[in-house]
Amino acid sequence: MTAAELGPEDVVLEIGAGIGNLTERLAKKAKKVIAVELDPVLVRVLHDRFDEVENIEIVPGDALKIEFPEFDKVVSNLPYSISSEITFKLLRYKFKLGILMYQYEFAARMVSSPNCKDYSRLTVDTCYFADASILMKVPKSAFQPVPEVDSAVVKLIPRPSPFEVKDQAFFMDFVAAVFSQRRKKLKNAILNMNHVLKISNIKEIIARLPEDMMSKRAENLTPEELAKVANQIIDLKKLPV
């Protein structure tokens, strides 16, 4: 919690508040805590504990479906089953800082580098939206009952993309498509996934793309290089082929 650098002006979002142990600690530091919890039984526990605490707002519901109130920071032990979906929902909101606990393997993919086994669609998508770093690995023995996996605390700082993307929706689809064929060269990955990308005259467009890029796999290209290829496809789609 120290890494969140909470101050008396911060409004903190907590997803998956559970019985409220972290909620209580956050409320002692922050101006306000918005505690989101899906389980009705746990929501009742939260109300029993905190209904008299003025700076805690309890929000019952599915974090993937509800709209979050405005917040400055997010500090959460996220439900691992929704790690990807909830992270990218969060990144659609404006906030300063996130301190989030994930399954270790998921966190490793968020912060990986090209040419590494953990480098993935998740790495590229995270890089587009935010700076991510692992603050600490948390062994499964730290929890009771002991889970099957280790965890990691990740620091997430939203910021503008460090590289140009001309069409965000296409870029996201493109990254998903080429990483679904990660053992294929980029040329073949695009051809194989064109039923998703829906690029007219795909063979002619690929012929105009740089061969040094097309002969590599997605896992060998930086996020910026993948964005350049996506941008070139967008430009070529506008030209007569």
Automatic annotation (TrEMBL):
Where is the protein situated, by its record's location annotation? Answer: Cytoplasm
Family matches, as Pfam families? RrnaAD (PF00398)
Indicate whether Protein biosynthesis appears among the record's keywords.
no
Per the record, its GO cellular-component terms are: cytoplasm
Pinpoint the Ribosomal RNA adenine methylase transferase N-terminal domain residues. 1-160
Q: What is its EC number?
A: 2.1.1.-
The protein's matches in CDD domains, at most eight in alphabetical order, are given as: AdoMet_MTases
Print the keywords alphabetically: Cytoplasm, Methyltransferase, RNA-binding, rRNA processing, S-adenosyl-L-methionine, Transferase
- Residue sites binding S-adenosyl-L-methionine per the record: 1, 16, 37, 62, 77
Q: Which is one GO molecular function term here?
A: RNA binding
Which range is the signal sequence, renumbered to this chain? none
- Describe its function: Specifically dimethylates two adjacent adenosines in the loop of a conserved hairpin near the 3'-end of 16S rRNA in the 30S particle. May play a critical role in biogenesis of 30S subunits.
User: Family, per the entry?
Assistant: Belongs to the class I-like SAM-binding methyltransferase superfamily. rRNA adenine N(6)-methyltransferase family. RsmA subfamily.
PANTHER family associated with the record: DIMETHYLADENOSINE TRANSFERASE, DIMETHYLADENOSINE TRANSFERASE-RELATED
Q: What is this protein called?
A: Probable ribosomal RNA small subunit methyltransferase A
Gene symbol here is: rsmA
